[in-house]
Amino acid sequence: MGGGHGSSVDRLHLAGDTIIHRLAPHVKIVATFAFVISVAISPRQRVEVFAVAFACVLTLIMVARIPLRVWLARCAVILPFMTMAVLVPFVGGGEQTEVLGVSLSTDGLWAAFNIAAKALIGASASIVLAATTPVTGLLEGFARLRVPRVLISIVAFMIRYLDLLVAQLGRMRTAMVARAHDPRWLWQAKPIASSAGALFVRSYERGERVHQAMLARGYTGVMPDLVEQSRPRSDWWAAIVVPAPVVAVLVLRLL
Amino acid sequence: MSCAPLSVDGLCFTYPGEHHRALDGFGLQVAAGERVAVLGPNGSGKTTFVMHLNGLHQLQRGAITIGDLEMCDDNLAEIRRRVGAVFQDADDQLFMPSVRADVAFGPANLGVPKAERDAIVERALTQVGAMDLIDRTPHHLSGGEKRRVAIATVLAMDPHMLVLDEPTSGLDPFGRRELADLLVSLPQTQLVVTHDLPFALQICPRSVVVSGGRVVADGPTAEVLADTALLEENRLELPYGFDPSRV
Predict the structure, then answer these.
(1) Whether the predicted pLDDT of B119 surpasses 90
(2) Would the pTM of this model clear 0.80, i.e. be above it?
(3) Interval A185-201 mean pLDDT
(4) Which domain holds residue A126?
(5) B6-246: what CATH class?
(6) A121 and A159 together in one domain
């Protein structure tokens, strides 16, 4: 609850002063989006496109000075997709290929490569965006890109209160443990389920109080514009430069 | 910046689905620029009263006048601008992603153009001595910092009156002293709802005691706190060893 702790969402941001950190958030969002889309629509047999995309992402990671360790650790989010990707060649039908004495589906292997490559490159691009842009910057960027204010407000509120919620859950857990509740088995989960209910009610009540605090400051149902800091520089070149190599290779190979 | 007198007459309020009256003939007159402590046990109706001052509870019976404005639906927006309510839990009050955006929230709702908003935000934060926090995120702040920023969020609306609900809760002694200095420096009419009797004595020349939804005692804070029978009757207690006559 106390000060000094970063929020779990804010911890994704790594402070720095590289050229990528300094780019306007809305430009970074567009660049990331364009880059990920161009990778996602690439045909899976075009290995060279993925090679170029991967090289681009690695370059961005280097330029942004994101430690490789941090990047790899954050890539863990794609592990579930990777697990699925590994299974596909075993269960896929059609033409078979022998790999180390195991008969695997060729189509399945390509599908696995497709999932793995796109997930890794897409996640890495998002990691660069999140690591170089503070949350407020991202919200501001989305506002500049004319994302409906109500959506931005929902995200902003979620980020603002997520940590309070987690802290509250932590306190409830501590209170349980302090009264000798030490759940190890599934049938001991009942208190956890009921505390989730209590947490829901508490969050609902907090929502009411926040709403009242908003009304007290003249809220009329429409969130005011969140974009507060003016950013005269426009770095739109970045939105073209980042996805350009991938698009170039893609276009060249498809012609 | 101006301050406004407050007049509350015969306020009655019953929460939906309950029979018990949370407010039962609540009456209070406060002069412009006065600082009044509102004391009383839990459940005496203090917070319900605070909610009324900002039009957060619909008026059931009675009348509230702030300056020359009577509380009614037509005046609601202006009353919310004139009455700055600082709630007990600063985390309820600071809901925007940055301190700057939070302080700008009120002025933005009032339709202040963006160019002027920055100056207002900076002035409000300077007034509470929190200008260095402007680009921080509210959940990174300490309890005392949160409280000061919460006060800045209402000062940015240029209020005529401040209503603070339990402003010292969760503050360490240093933060509490800083808050006292800040409140004394502000010119607005102030209602300070608190259980913290020494704090009331420190900053409010006058105190009212609320019990059963109405004001049961009203007088100079030192006299109210010296009346041990009154305090006991209303479940109020001075900290051990604290003697209001020797402060």
Answers:
(1) yes
(2) no
(3) 79
(4) 10-142+231-254
(5) alpha beta
(6) no
